[in-house]
Design goal:
This protein is α+β, with helices and mostly antiparallel strands. Helix content is 30%, strand content 21%. The chain contains two helices and four strands; from the N terminus they run ααββββ. It has helices at 7-12, 24-57, and strands spanning 86-93, 96-102, 107-113, 119-125. Strands 1-2-3-4 form a four-stranded antiparallel β-sheet, with no helix packed on it.
Length: 135
């Protein structure tokens, strides 16, 4: 490999002049390239149309299991409480449910999403030493 181009290679890569027909090999390569690019364009167009239809259908907002259920229904939701804890109160506001639970030792508030039934978090209430009154 000396870095020079032989006359045979130069003749093979020669650019055809205007009006001159292409060789069969170059024509076959050109057809293959056009077919590949056309297929790529068709696939890309199909993906764009599929994404458009998917967005319009709202598939990302609701799952397939919730389609037949009434609005606001989230089924059975399990909220774990420790043995010995008792339900103190339940309050609902702004799409959230606050469940107050307690035992002799500790109190907690569980926050639940009213639409999904998912537990969002817990607020553990611990007495400060010397300030809390025992029941």
């Amino acid at each position: 490999m000396s870095g020079t181009i032989s006359p045979e290679e130069d003749a093979r890569d020669e650019v055809p002049q205007k009006g001159e027909p292409l060789s069969e090999e170059k024509l076959r390569r050109l057809k293959f390239l056009v077919a590949g690019m056309s297929g790529f364009l068709v696939l890309t167009f199909m993906l764009v149309v599929a994404a458009f239809v998917w967005r319009l259908s709202g598939a990302e907002e609701r799952g397939p299991a919730r389609a037949a259920l009434p609005a606001g229904y989230f089924g059975a939701s399990r909220i774990a409480i420790a043995p010995g804890e008792k339900l103190r109160s339940v309050t609902m506001e702004s799409g959230r449910i606050a469940i107050a639970i307690g035992s002799g030792d500790a109190e907690a508030v569980i926050i639940v999403d009213a639409k999904t039934g998912e537990e969002l978090g817990r607020i553990l209430l611990t007495p400060l030493s010397g300030f809390a009154a025992a029941e």
